[in-house]
């Protein structure tokens, strides 16, 4: 994976073998999400997901914020038809459908669409002093990028209702306590910790990792019996992979496995 030019809205780098780092690059606007940035991010995720060298995607923000929300200057005068034509949900669908693990490294502000972007990740590493919230009601609208649904599933009805109906933010430390983040760490350690986890996942068999992600996400919206059946079928299918044979053989021989994604 090649590094992108510095004038793009999403910087793409490969800081570690197998890790694609996507950095939102509108620091002058606290990485507010406009149409162009969303499109670049969607395209970058699709490219990474189809790159055989990439096993994990990490998303972060340039400067002091992750993403301060939608770019209100861009949408303030929109009609319902105009806002629909922006196709926000279809752009986010690339993240929803991405088979690779996605880690969000969140510092500073993650508000509105920025919080919704983080909610698309599989693991969220957040700064203890980050500002997390859904303030849309304060400007006359409501969340429109998934928060009313994903927050309910992540932290339950009453905490989700408080965030959405008051528009009041919480800290990263509180987000981790509520289950809205995987871990809260010092602000200067966020990206380091995200890359550490990404590197750890990269050393594991990618087909097993991706199958586990598929089972958890697909099963979350299914009946328990359906989810359990999906899990079992994916589990059984992994016995057709070379990595399963290598992993169990290496365990028996008390050596480090060499996983090839086959």
Question: Can you describe what's shown?
Answer:
- The protein is α/β, with parallel strands linked by helices and 262 residues long.
- It has 2 domains: 10-202, 2-enoyl-CoA Hydratase, Chain A, domain 1 (Alpha-Beta Complex), CATH 3.90.226; 206-252, Orthogonal Bundle (Lyase 2-enoyl-coa Hydratase, Chain  A, domain 2).
- 46% of the residues lie in helices and 15% in strands.
- It is built from 12 helices and 9 strands.
- The strands form 2 sheets. A 6-stranded mixed beta sheet has the order 1-2-3-4-6-9, with helices on both faces. Strands 5-7-8 form a 3-stranded mixed beta sheet.
- Helix 1 runs parallel beside helix 4, helix 6 packs antiparallel against helix 7 and helix 10 runs antiparallel to helix 11.
- It is globular and about 65 Å long.
- The two termini are 21 Å apart.
- The mean pLDDT is 94.
Topology:
Blueprint: E1 10-16, E2 19-24, H1 35-49, E3 56-61, H2 72-75, H3 80-85, H4 88-96, E4 102-106, E5 109-111, H5 113-119, E6 123-127, E7 131-133, H6 147-155, H7 157-166, E8 170-171, H8 172-178, E9 183-185, H9 190-202, H10 206-220, H11 224-237, H12 242-252
Parallel strand pairs: 2-3, 3-4, 4-6, 5-7, 6-9
Antiparallel strand pairs: 1-2, 7-8
Helix pairs in contact: 1-4, 6-7, 10-11
Q: What topology, given as strand order, has the largest sheet?
A: 1-2-3-4-6-9
Instruction: Round the mean pLDDT to the nearest integer and report it.
Output: 94
Q: How would you characterize the largest beta sheet?
A: 6 strands, mixed
Number of domains: 2
Indicate the proportion of strand residues. Answer: 15-25%
CATH architecture of the largest domain: Alpha-Beta Complex
Backbone CA Rg = 19 Å
Instruction: Quote the distance from N terminus to C terminus.
Output: 21 Å
The percentage helix is 40-55%
Quote the CATH topology of the largest domain: 2-enoyl-CoA Hydratase, Chain A, domain 1
Task: Tell me the name of the CATH class of the largest domain.
Answer: Alpha Beta
CATH superfamily name of the largest domain?
A: 2-enoyl-CoA Hydratase, Chain A, domain 1
Number of strands: 9
| Low confidence ranges | none
């Amino acid at each position: 994976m090649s590094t992108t030019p510095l004038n793009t809205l999403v910087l793409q780098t490969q800081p570690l073998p197998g890790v694609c780092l996507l950095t939102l690059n509108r620091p002058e606007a606290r990485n507010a999400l406009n149409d162009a940035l969303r499109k670049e991010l969607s395209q970058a995720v699709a490219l990474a997901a189809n790159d055989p060298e990439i096993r994990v995607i990490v998303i972060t923000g340039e400067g002091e914020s992750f993403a301060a929300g939608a770019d209100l200057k861009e949408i303030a005068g929109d009609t319902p038809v105009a806002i629909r034509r922006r196709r926000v949900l279809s752009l986010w669908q690339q993240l929803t459908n991405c088979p690779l693990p996605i880690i969000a490294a969140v510092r500073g502000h993650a508000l509105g669409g920025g919080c919704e972007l983080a909610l698309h990740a599989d693991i969220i590493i957040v700064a203890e002093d980050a500002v997390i919230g859904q303030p849309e009601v304060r400007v006359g609208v409501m969340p429109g990028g998934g928060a009313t649904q994903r927050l309910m599933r992540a932290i339950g009805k009453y905490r989700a209702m408080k965030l959405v109906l008051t528009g009041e933010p919480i800290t990263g430390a509180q987000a981790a306590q509520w289950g809205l983040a995987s871990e809260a760490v010092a602000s200067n350690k966020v990206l380091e910790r995200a890359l550490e986890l990404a590197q750890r996942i990269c050393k594991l068999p990618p087909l097993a990792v991706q199958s586990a992600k598929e089972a958890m996400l697909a099963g979350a919206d299914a009946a328990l019996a359906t989810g359990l059946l999906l899990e079992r079928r994916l589990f059984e299918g992994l016995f057709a992979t070379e990595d399963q044979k290598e992993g169990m053989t290496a365990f028996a021989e008390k050596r480090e496995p060499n996983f090839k994604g086959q």
